[in-house]
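Example 3.2
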Amino acid sequence: MPSFGRRRKSWRILVPDDAEDGAEVLDTLVDDLGLVLGIEPNGTGRYYVIVPALYYAHQDKPRFVESLEGIGG
């Protein structure tokens, strides 16, 4: 269970803001995955959604890249 009493700082990311609303894309992805993980995707909970998703991709980088290229299962 995450410890939400820890000190915090902000981490920024710049996203497209044209035909693709990058903020909306990220909000939707994080919100949907948060539901699956049982994590409230608020300002604090987003960290606990994003970190395991990145860690999961990091565990098997070649297969992750192949999945983005449409290769494999």
